[in-house]
Specification:
mainly alpha, transmembrane, 4 helices, transmembrane helix, membrane
C-alpha cells in the first residue's frame, strides 16, 4: 500500500490558501496612518476637538433632559476620548516607525554618497600628486627659456673671450 500524497514541486509557486482574514495593502494603510498622525499633531485638530467637547458638555448639561444622551459625569464622552486615544497612539507610533525607516534609508544613501565622495577626492589627490611629480621631470617652457638664455650668455662670453 503506497501513501498517495501530493508531491511538492519546488519549481512551481504554491497554491494560495483561502484566508478568512481580510486582506489589506500595508503600504496604503501606512500612508493613511501617516495622514491621520499628521492631522492629530496640528492645532486645527486641537481646536476642533475642543469645540466638539465644549458642544458635547454644553448640550448634555443645558439641553432638556429627554434630549440628553450623556448626563453629568459624561461617561460616554470619556469612553469616546479613550477610544480616540487608543487609536491615535498606535497610529502615531506606526507613522514614527515609517519615518524612522525612511530616515534610515536616507542616512544609508548619504553615507554611501559620502564614501564615494571621499574615494573620488582621494583618487584626485593621488592624480594631482602624480602630475606634480611628472611635471617635475618634464621640461616646461620657462625652464627651456632659462636654459636657452644661459646658453646665449655662455656663447656671448666665449665670443668676447675670443675677440679679446
Amino acid at each position: 500500500m503506497s501513501d498517495e500524497r501530493p508531491r511538492i514541486r519546488l519549481d512551481q509557486p504554491r497554491v494560495r490558501r483561502i484566508s478568512l482574514l481580510p486582506s489589506y495593502d500595508p503600504e496604503a494603510f501606512g500612508r493613511l496612518s501617516e495622514k491621520i498622525a499628521r492631522f492629530l499633531g496640528t492645532g486645527r485638530f486641537i481646536v476642533w476637538m475642543t469645540v466638539v467637547i465644549i458642544a458635547w458638555v454644553a448640550w448634555n448639561a443645558l439641553a432638556p433632559r429627554h434630549l440628553r444622551w450623556d448626563s453629568y459625569p459624561f461617561i460616554f464622552l470619556t469612553l469616546m476620548l479613550s477610544l480616540q486615544a487608543s487609536y491615535a497612539a498606535p497610529l502615531i507610533l506606526l507613522a514614527q516607525n515609517r519615518q524612522d525607516d525612511r530616515d534610515r534609508v536616507n542616512l544609508e544613501q548619504d553615507r554611501k554618497a559620502n564614501d564615494r565622495s571621499i574615494a573620488d577626492t582621494e583618487y584626485l589627490t593621488r592624480e594631482v600628486a602624480a602630475l606634480r611629480l611628472g611635471l617635475g621631470e618634464v621640461a616646461t617652457r620657462d625652464w627651456i627659456r632659462s636654459e636657452l638664455q644661459d646658453l646665449m650668455k655662455d656663447i656671448d662670453e666665449r665670443q668676447r673671450a675670443e675677440a679679446e
